[in-house]
Amino acid sequence: MTSALGNLSAQQRALVDRWLPNATVERDHSWGLTTTTVVEVTHAGKRFIVKAAGADDHHIQRELHAHLTWLRPWTSRGRAPTLVHGSADAKVLVTRYLPGELVLGSTHADDPAIFRQAGELLALLHAQSVVVDDDYERRENEKSLAWLRQPHRIAAATAERLRAEIETWATPPATLVPTHGDWQPRNWLVHHDVVGIIDFGRAAMRPASTDFARLAVQDFNRNPDLETAFLDGYGPDPRDAGAWHRDRVRAAIATAVWAHRVGDEPFEAQGHRMIAEALSSSRA
Questions:
Q1: Helix (H, G, I), strand (E, B) or coil at 87
Q2: Alpha-carbon distance 176 to 9, whole Å?
Q3: Which of 72, 150, 151, 229 could cross-link with 115 by S-S, CB 3.0 to 4.6 Å?
Q4: How many Å apart are CA 114 and CA 18, to the nearest integer?
Q5: What is the pLDDT of residues 2-56, one digit of tens each?
Q6: Which helix (DSSP H) or strand (DSSP E) does residue 42 occupy?
Q7: 88 in helix, strand or coil?
Q8: Where are the domains of the chain?
Q9: How many whole angstroms separate alpha carbon 227 and alpha carbon 106?
Q10: Which has the closest alpha carbon to 130: 69, 180, 178?
Q11: Of all helices (H) and strands (E), which one includes residue 196?
Q12: What pTM did the predictor assign?
């Protein structure tokens, strides 16, 4: 393997060399903000994606679980990459390359037809399983309070207001479904006008409404026609007023603090906007 895979551990490199001997690196798709390496390679005339994480990363395990448990409604339609090899212990996986260009930053980013497809795909994911979790809300409240204890640039008065509000929230039973966890055009591809989905490192059982959080603050806010098209594809809107407010506040805090941790200032600024918008909405 070439230097594009130089960040892989010895264990990860050994596995990739065994799975894809003499593979040729074509392109490095890594963000550079985290310890995750994402590389496009060619082996035996076919293209693959190698994804490997650092020692403290938990996303590869989530991604492998998603591939093994939830992605068939998409992979059977050619709308998500198919898992070829994976090791939870080594935190590395290989998938078949899914062709397409990212919707984010392209002309497709304002196309209602693309958002309608994205809604249809999300509905397929959410429809697979439903569980009721009596402890979900309490756990999520604790996670948000933990985020606020980490270094961040949220104004002190705002952080205190957030803490005070979270501590007043009720913790009713929550209905959970398989969710992507980062559902937005950054993780959608378009190939010949067909939408495909990538990046399942945040996949988990959550309320369906949580997959609306990124879209609401970015795309739906920018163009309400995109929200209409998305719901045309998805079906009935799962956002209940009280739970949706809590979803928005939690997502806003996590975005602002995580982005500050990794040095992504534009995303951090988005997190601060999310906080302001969430706090200006009706309280749960």
A1: strand
A2: 35
A3: 229
A4: 38
A5: 456 777 999 999 999 999 999 999 999 887 656 789 999 999 999 999 999 988 7
A6: strand 37-43
A7: coil
A8: 3-98, 102-280
A9: 18
A10: 178
A11: strand 194-197
A12: 0.92
